[in-house]
Amino acid sequence: MSKLFIQVNESNVPQGHPAFEYNLKECFPEHDFDSGPPSGWLEFERTPEPKLNVYEKFDDTKGSENCDAFETHNGLTYELVDGKIKDTWHVIPMTDEEKTKKQEQAKVDYGGPESWTFNEETCEWDPPIAYPSDGKPYVWNDSTSSWDLVEGE
What are the residue ranges spanned by the domains of the chain? Predict the structure, then answer.
């Protein structure tokens, strides 16, 4: 995989979006990339977007203060770490009010059968009997309070 680089200003603040090394080599054909990137450029390292826990969110106060590349995703900044610019994801817990709103919406959107109970820790409906773990497809039967095997699957 080709390395990524990003242009930085005199204070090492990222400018724009990362570029592939092969693109920079076309722009700077005389530069020796074995000695590092051209002046005004730093290596860039992607960090995968984290999977949020049920009551976490991206910090929407972060994401545009140090680069013009964040029009669409708050909670992501580019930061200088150990001589490289890296994706930095900012995750914060939801407030109690946000948790309550999410729970209320989940109850409306995904209301479980009468016999199921809402689990506030997972923000999901739990059946009175766990889903079978044999890998076969089942559907809940509220009248018998059991999982019925889906035939023909």
Answer: 4-93, 96-149
